[in-house]
Amino acid sequence: METVIRKFFSDGDILEMLSKRIIPCLDVREGRTTKGIKFENNVDIGDPVEMARFYYEAGADELVFYDITASHEKRNIMIDVVRRVAETIFIPFSVGGGIRTLEDMRAVLLAGAEKVSVNSAAVKNPEIISQGARAFGNQCVVLGMDVKHVGEKKGIPSGYEIVINGGRTYVGLDALEWAQKGQLLGAGEICLNSIDADGTKDGYEMDLTRLISDNVTIPVIASGGAGKPEHLAQVLTTGHADAALIASMVHYGTYTIEDIKSYLVQQGIKIRPAHTYQANPSR
Predict the structure, then answer these.
(1) Is residue 83 part of a domain?
(2) Which ranges in 137-187 belong to alpha helices (H)?
């Protein structure tokens, strides 16, 4: 883990690793960044390579790239886009969508990503988590979870169910049980996306975020629903999340990374300065 950290940070910067992270998310379809609401009605909002560079220069801590239709379309992720993004930015970069095998993971990492996110494939074949952790290290494997509130029922004691294939397929798997199993299998991080909150800009799903964060020991990234800096402050404190994924609020220019980080600092939340990575643009 220390080797990975030192790719990006000086000794002084390592002290910042416990800071909360702000992570723009690029949902990509057919080579273009897109955004929808509750996984529907997606619209084109720009070129992922240009947007990645913009957020890097703006002070994002990390980036997440999702090929949102790869799993549903049963195709491999667009490695050429991954490679071009990796050549453009110099901050940690996670990639998900269409990753089904160890070889898929290897291809994404060789293309320049630092982490791979497995979601639908991990539900279908949980061993992919363990395989990836053994081959590349736990820190490289992110368990992506798309979650829908369905109410407590048989097989879903938490009231939250895992949904795969881009929000299309309910699998009868309890979100809390799956998060805990994912950690045991070797995932080094969880990216927790609420389908109910996705794109609404009404705030993160706080009950879900606390439920997962309080019952695993690996970092949890809250995703879905950010509309203003107050939402990030809430999920990073009372929601107990380690990081916050953002999309609409920055994609449409409502807020900048600097706006968000300035607000969080005012609230006494420990975050990395917006300029942290720009002084060392080399891998």
Answers:
(1) yes
(2) 175-185
